[in-house]
Design goal:
Layout: H1 15-42, H2 49-74, H3 83-99, H4 101-126, H5 131-158
């Protein structure tokens, strides 16, 4: 990342808009923390295609996490203090789905990413985003949609 890509945005918003934007960015950051952990704990040591897909999905979620953390700091805010709880939820969801096997992992992926797409949609409609941040949120939502498609395709191939 280049330092010129960072823009300090403190004081650019009305208090009402700032509050809604802060909540939305904290929510997205926290949920991406959970998603990273779900994938992290689904990955096994087995050299298989599913692990390759899970690693790519985890890496993708890590970029989303970074996107939202950067935006939080640009506005002068910090991530939610309760995000550690979502870290634990991600661990639990990841391990439980892994115990259920390949189909459990794929079904968890479909469920979680479908919820993420819905959540992104609600936040995109309900928050007055600046153009740059909106583009990031829309790009990340499109990534989530591609995850849903991939997990559904792999689940359908399972029969």
């Amino acid at each position: 990342m280049d330092v010129d890509a960072i823009r300090l945005r403190r004081g650019e918003l009305s208090p009402k808009v700032a509050r809604s934007l802060r909540r939305a960015l904290c929510t997205l950051h926290t949920l991406e923390t959970m998603a990273v952990n779900i994938y992290q704990y689904q990955i096994t040591t087995e050299p298989c295609e599913l692990n390759r897909y899970l690693i790519a999905a985890m890496c993708n979620e890590m970029t989303h996490l970074q996107d939202f953390q950067v935006k939080l700091y640009e506005y002068g805010w910090k991530p939610s203090r309760t995000r550690w709880m979502y870290w634990i939820v991600g661990l639990v969801f990841g391990l439980l789905s892994r115990i259920r096997g390949r189909r459990g992992i794929l079904r968890m992926g479909v469920w979680v990413e479908t919820k993420a797409v819905q959540h992104y949609g609600e936040l995109l409609e309900g928050i007055p985003w600046d153009d740059e941040t909106r583009r990031i949120v829309e790009k990340n939502r499109a990534d989530e949609e591609s995850h849903v498609a991939r997990w559904r395709q792999l689940l359908a191939a399972e029969g």
